[in-house]
UniProtKB/TrEMBL annotation, chain A:
The gene is secF. This is Protein-export membrane protein SecF. Belongs to the SecD/SecF family. SecF subfamily. Gene3D superfamilies: Multidrug efflux transporter AcrB transmembrane domain. InterPro entries: SecD/SecF_arch_bac, SecD/SecF_bac, SecD/SecF_CS, SecD_SecF_C, SecD_SecF_C_bact, SecF_bac. GO terms for molecular function: protein-transporting ATPase activity. Forms a complex with SecD. Part of the essential Sec protein translocation apparatus which comprises SecA, SecYEG and auxiliary proteins SecDF-YajC and YidC. It comes from Sphingomonas dokdonensis. GO terms for cellular component: plasma membrane.
Automatic annotation (TrEMBL), chain B:
Part of the Sec protein translocase complex. Interacts with the SecYEG preprotein conducting channel. SecDF uses the proton motive force (PMF) to complete protein translocation after the ATP-dependent function of SecA. Forms a complex with SecF. Part of the essential Sec protein translocation apparatus which comprises SecA, SecYEG and auxiliary proteins SecDF-YajC and YidC. Belongs to the SecD/SecF family. SecD subfamily. Signal peptide: none annotated. Residues 161-218 form the Protein translocase subunit SecDF P1 domain. The chain crosses the membrane at residues 369-389, 396-416, 422-442, 471-489, 495-515. NCBIfam families: 2A0604s01, secD. InterPro entries: Acrflvin-R, SecD, SecD/SecF_arch_bac, SecD/SecF_CS, SecD_1st, SecD_SecF_C, SecD_SecF_C_bact, SecDF_P1_head. Keywords: Cell inner membrane, Cell membrane, Membrane, Protein transport, Translocation, Transmembrane, Transmembrane helix, Transport. GO terms for biological process: intracellular protein transmembrane transport; protein targeting; protein transport by the Sec complex. It is found in: Cell membrane. This is Protein translocase subunit SecD.
Length: 323, 533
């Protein structure tokens, strides 16, 4: 049986030469992402903004204007409607109720539900949640804290296990991935809620995973080919790991693709974020973080204490590929 | 690396068998496993999958501080009067979070201080910090300030009691497997699977259920009522159903009897009007006290007060000696029942407010489970097919590892009593994708080493050896973000993190150790000269 090879053997793409172009593109995209995030803002979910969210299922797709009228007539604040894939399922978002006590919120939920079931017979609620401003503030704080801690923790791990340049380039690449994700959410105005923070943390974990694999190979090749130029080592390492990078991205995308199309509407935003993160993370692994190592002045012949010797490795030298 | 002694092979298969067996109960519907009569560990479904209500209750810490201050005020007043010689005090105030009072006779300052020390008690916990600071100001004024340690302790006690009361009240509702957990210093998480309308629950938990019987102060003038300033020893309370039309009434400050002295409370229908009411029974001590006070106050009205609001103010027609009384007002069957439950389960030491709430309908939950299972199955199928066409025999080994990994994750999750949430299912699918990463790393390395001209055994050995280090480092970074999610995330995010962390651990076991064993066995048996990879 002939086996499938997504990436041909012995690729020799000069990724390092493309680095100027890649940095430029990355910079432009990052600036754009920041711009979009500030200009359009993120569409925060109820868990981050406080307020109440009701998801209703209708028998037939409802007329949105009529639904908005019905809800707004209840005098519970400006309603915003959102649709998930299925036109019969809608979420209705309402601001935190005046007085902020539970009585007001309960009354609002009841009023809206009654009004909807009268105006649209057969409509049933599938879920609702209410979150006070105080709790949502805490969730935002915890979310930001989690992302910052994850970035720092992983950067620290990279510095301890590798040279400092690896830590810095890795953090730079993650910041890039984060900006892209934020930009994506600002641009599409998909709801940014607590689950998305989990997705973002997973993206960070995955993206680092990818970079660690390449970094690991760079370190190994630095030991193996002590005379080689740094840019050659980086090129060789990225090329050597390219089949793995592509293979893993494809398997994960296959799995996430199944989730995106079949996993139900509640997880859709979450899955979309993760798919985007994996594409962006793969790009930054190949073009951003490893090339940045050269810019940061990583030299061959690392400090001896960082070298973990292994028998087979040093026993023989094998010519680099392409030679 | 490729040397697997028999004991190692046996223990690997045994571990897998045990963990997969643990997964079985979770994969069979509960109504079938229930019939087996043994309690098998199974995965709990989160509310987003099972449907139900989630409430986050928060206690007002100031509330605890205030009621503690009021309690201390009463304690001080009785203590100063109780012993001989009486210490006359005046100008007692509890404003600004402190209790201060004036001694009529400044020479008694040391004696007063002594008594305060005896009622403010010893130290708190291990450190022995005092609960109150006692200060003498201007040689005749004593000021009691609660210490932070004392306050923390008081909040802690109140929350412990409140959690118990909440548990009793929810149990009375007869719902299925509620979860009630304290969270942080002043919050309680309540999760009730299957509950569709949390209104009744919220009504029940929203009641402090502080029941008091007090005599009505009939001397109060309408002016006093209107200004809410009753004469000394009395207070003005809200009385929405007052037959006089004014929704206010003046009552004596000291209670005849309180809800603490109840032994039972039941909803019943009045024999005269057939309206729902709550029948209460006092304990023996409370019954005697109630009998005595009603005997002394025949033909005077008394007020039944719930949570500082007067429900009714009936006349005492004759002494009530049986230790029983009825609370009637404008109750519905539900509200009378709720009140009875609240009274039976005791009063909440602190008022609780719902700060977060969510309810998921059963249809959405079921749909999410179906979608999740379908997505997982398709994800496994796609990944398995892809690995097979890419790596051939080595792909088969990796695929066996992935499928076993799925069962092992379920088994571990059941073993630790974990909860599967909707994001948890996403974590599951993601783990399927990432678990093969280890095999991709290994197999790519084997390919590379073969290209460099190494023998089959050498290439496989080196592939596992070199990839293992990378796999460890890559999984460590993944674990770091998983641990942070677990520590800082709430609810669903935590569920996601748990599955992710378990998946990282089990995938290293199945994808590295297990496939290595399979590969080694194959190499030993057939000793191939070349491999298709």
């Amino acid at each position: 049986m002939r086996l499938l090879k997504l990436v041909p053997d012995n690729t020799n793409i000069d990724f390092v030469r493309l680095r100027g172009l890649a940095f430029g593109l990355t910079l432009i995209l990052s600036v754009l992402a920041i711009g979009v995030t500030f200009a359009k803002g993120l569409n925060f979910g109820v868990d981050f903004e406080g307020g109440l969210m009701i998801e209703e299922r209708f028998v037939t797709p409802p007329d949105l204007d009529r639904l908005r009228e019905v809800v707004n007539a209840q005098n519970v604040g400006e309603a915003s409607l959102q649709q998930f894939g299925d036109p019969r399922t809608l979420t209705i978002r309402l601001p935190i109720q005046e007085g902020a006590d539970e009585g007001a919120t309960n009354a609002a939920v009841k009023k809206v539900e009654t009004a909807i079931s009268q105006a649209f017979p057969g409509a049933t609620f599938s879920r609702y949640s209410t979150i006070s401003g105080k709790v949502s503030g805490e969730l935002v704080r915890n979310g930001v804290l989690a992302v910052v801690l994850a970035v720092l923790g992983i950067g620290l791990f990279a510095i301890v296990r590798f040279e400092w340049q690896f830590g810095v380039s890795t953090i730079a690449a993650i910041v890039h991935d984060l900006l892209m994700t934020l930009g994506f959410f600002a641009l599409t105005q998909f709801e940014f809620d607590l689950n998305i923070v989990a997705a973002v943390l997973t993206i960070i974990g995955y993206s680092i995973n990818d970079k660690i694999v390449i970094d690991d190979r760079i370190r190994e090749n630095m030991r193996r080919y002590r005379k080689m130029e740094m840019r050659e080592i980086v090129n060789l390492s990225v090329n050597e790991t390219l089949p793995r990078t592509v293979m893993t991205s494809v398997t994960i995308l296959l799995a996430l693709g199944a989730l995106l199309f079949l996993g139900g509407h509640v997880l859709r935003g979450f899955t979309a974020a993760m798919i985007l993160g994996i594409v962006v993370g793969t790009y930054s692994s190949i073009y951003v973080s490893s090339s940045l190592l050269i810019t940061l002045g990583l030299r061959a012949n690392p400090a001896p204490e960082k070298v973990t010797r292994s028998g087979i490795e040093n026993a023989e030298r094998v010519a680099p590929r392409g030679e | 690396m490729l040397d697997f002694p028999r004991w190692k092979v046996v223990s690997i298969w045994l571990t897998i068998a045990v963990l997969c067996a643990l997964a079985i109960p979770s994969l069979i519907p509960q109504r079938i496993t229930d019939k087996w009569g043994v309690n098998l560990p199974r995965i709990n479904l989160g509310l987003d999958l099972a449907g139900g209500s989630y409430l986050l209750l928060e206690a007002d810490v100031n509330d605890v501080a205030e009621s503690r201050l009021e309690a201390m005020r009463e304690q001080v007043q009785t203590e100063m009067r109780r012993q001989d010689p009486r210490i006359e005090i005046g100008d007692i105030s509890s404003r600004g979070g402190r209790l201060s009072f004036l001694l009529r006779d400044p020479s008694q300052v040391d004696a007063a201080r002594e008594r305060l020390l005896s009622i403010t008690g010893g130290g708190v916990g291990m450190t022995g910090q005092r609960e109150w600071d006692i200060q003498v100001v201007d040689s005749s004024r004593l000021v009691l300030t609660p210490t932070q340690a004392g306050l923390t302790q008081a909040v802690d006690t109140a929350m412990g009691d409140a959690t118990e009361v909440v548990r009793r009240r929810i149990d009375e509702l007869g719902t299925r497997e509620p979860t009630i957990i304290r969270q942080g210093s002043n919050r309680i998480v309540v999760q009730v699977p299957g509950l569709q309308n949390p209104q009744a629950l919220k009504d029940l938990l929203g009641k402090t259920a502080k029941l008091e019987f007090k005599l009505v102060d009939e001397s109060a003038t309408p002016q006093q009522l209107a200004s809410k300033q009753a004469s000394a020893g009395s207070q003005v309370l809200v009385y929405p159903n007052n037959p006089t039309g004014i929704p206010l009434i003046a009552v004596k400050r000291s209670a005849i009897i309180t809800g603490d002295q109840l032994s039972d409370a039941r909803m019943e229908f009045s024999q005269q009007t057939n309206e729902p009411q709550v029948a209460i029974t006092f304990d023996s001590q409370g019954g005697r006290k109630f009998a005595r006070v009603t005997q002394e106050n025949v033909n005077k009205p008394f007020a039944i007060i719930l949570d500082n609001q007067v429900i009714s103010a009936p006349n005492i027609n004759e002494p009530i000696t049986g230790g029983r009384a009825q609370i009637s007002g404008s109750f519905t069957t539900e509200s009378a029942n709720a009140l009875a439950i609240a009274l039976r389960s005791g009063k909440l030491p602190v008022a609780l407010k719902v700060v977060e709430e969510s309810t998921v309908g059963p249809d959405l939950g079921e749909e999410s489970i179906r979608a999740g299972i379908l997505a997982s199955a398709v994800a496994v199928a796609l990944v398995v097919a892809f690995m097979l066409v890419t790596y051939g025999r080595f792909g088969v080994y990796a695929n066996l590892a992935v499928v076993i990994n799925v069962f092992v994750i379920v088994g571990v999750l059941a073993l630790i009593g974990g909860t599967l949430t909707l994001p948890g299912i996403a974590g599951f699918v993601l783990t399927i994708g990432t678990a093969v990463d280890a095999n991709v790393l290994i197999n790519e390395r084997i390919r590379e080493e073969r290209h460099r001209g190494r023998s089959v055994v050498q290439a496989v050995e080196l592939g596992y050896k070199e990839a293992s280090r990378t796999i460890f480092e890559a999984n460590m970074t993944h674990a770091i973000s998983g641990i942070i999610m677990f520590l800082l995330g709430s609810g669903p995010v935590k569920g996601f993190a748990v599955v992710l962390l378990i998946g990282i651990a089990t995938s290293v076991f199945t994808a590295v150790l297990f496939t290595r064993m399979l590969t080694a066995g194959w190499l030993r048996r057939t000793k191939p000269k070349t491999i298709n990879i």
